[in-house]
Amino acid sequence: MLITDVSVVVTSPGRNFVTLKITTSDGVVGLGDATVNGRELAVASYLTDHVAALLIGREANNIEDTWQYLYRGAYWRRGPITMAAIAAVDMALWDIKAKVAGLPLYQLLGGASRTGALAYGHASGSDIPALFDSIRNHLELGYKAIRIQTGVPGLGQVYGVASDQKPGARYDYEPAKRNVVDGRPLPVEEAWDTRAYLRHVPTVFEAVRNEFGPELPLLHDGHHRMTPIQAAKLGKSLEPYDLFWLEDCTPGEDQDALRLVRQHTTTPIAIGEVFNSVFDYQTLITERLIDYVRSAVTHTGGVTAMKKLLDFAAVYGIKSGMHGPTDISPVGMAAALHIDMAIHNFGIQEYMQHSAETLEVFRTSYTFTGGLLHPGENPGLGVDLDEDAAATFEYTPAYLPVNRLQDGTVHDW
Ligand code: CS2
Ligand code: MG
């Protein structure tokens, strides 16, 4: 079964997505997610200009060989653009293999290890009463684990805090923003103050535990904004509130930073949504400096690479907590869910829920019931792309915000 056609679909149903479509000589179609938020066209070009021609005529069944060919063969290894492109090819080939087998992908990865994947949702509020409303909404939606983020007194808009708190609203509030200045798309700029944030966060967790009790698993995302000693201090001050995890407390490229955090706190640590290779985790895993691997299948080289990364983590007792914001397309989300079902060291799955527009373009078979996600039983990944619907949503440049301190210094993400 040879690869006969490769095409890239860029669409923007509410936000931008890049999807790879591979067709075989048997007429089987596989889909892969190649979305890198704010840098979408770079991956689209990488696939169209440098990968598509290499795939034509290759054996679609040889997934490992194709992965190594694109990774080792390219000379320029790793990086978010290359690894998202490889991920899309890898996902599409697994989709094809599972469709040909007539099985949902998780069956090819070893079958079900659980009835569903525990999901966490994103509650947020500009202040504590608004956060409580948002937590209640999420509990009504069925979530059994919740990430909490709030505004910080003295700061304006804080990333990760939704402005729309209406019950039942989809919390699609971490998109890259469409902001045009003098005809040019530019990132929005937000003010940041880490000391104000560090003073505020423990008071939020205290209020939430008092209101909602000790059992609800609570998570928090620091978006890489603390120094190691600040992160250590936050982890320590949050210990009484028994977090499920503290995510991305320090900048992602500094693995040694987490050694210092680990020395000072027993709050569980998660990191990795900006990583793109197992090598980004080498120190973190072998020295047991983290508790959860946060990578997305889309940004880590696909199902093949993610499965190996999680097997490596399993040796050290480290669990999965795969990235699942709305900039991971439904195709990437489905790939995560099949792995979640099959691996033994599953921890939790992030689930933000895509907008109705997105789900009009991507027809999914995964379900969310009783707090658990399930990929469904359709052969393959279980996602179909409606190309006619996709064509009605034109690509629009959009960027994540840039943070500046009060004196104007650009701050870490
Ligand atoms: C966030 C993401 O889901 C998360 O944990 O950190 O929404 C992240 O901000 C986006 O994926 C950036 O593209
Ligand atoms: Mg995050």
UniProtKB/TrEMBL annotation:
The record's section on SMART domains has:
MR_MLE
Q: Which GO terms describe its biological process?
A: amino acid catabolic process; carbohydrate catabolic process
Q: Which InterPro entries match?
A: D-mannonate_dehydratase-like, DgoD-like, Enolase-like_C_sf, Enolase-like_N, Enolase_C-like, Mandel_Rmase/mucon_lact_enz_CS, Mandelate_racemase_C, Mandelate_racemase_N_dom
Enumerate the Pfam families for this protein.
MR_MLE_C (PF13378), MR_MLE_N (PF02746)
Read off the Gene3D superfamilies from this record.
Enolase-like C-terminal domain, Enolase-like, N-terminal domain
**Domain spans labelled Mandelate racemase/muconate lactonizing enzyme C-terminal:** 128-268
Q: Name one GO molecular function term.
A: mannonate dehydratase activity
Q: Which domain of life does the protein's organism represent?
A: Bacteria
Q: What protein name does the entry list? A: D-mannonate dehydratase
In its UniProt entry, the species of origin is given as Sanguibacter gelidistatuariae
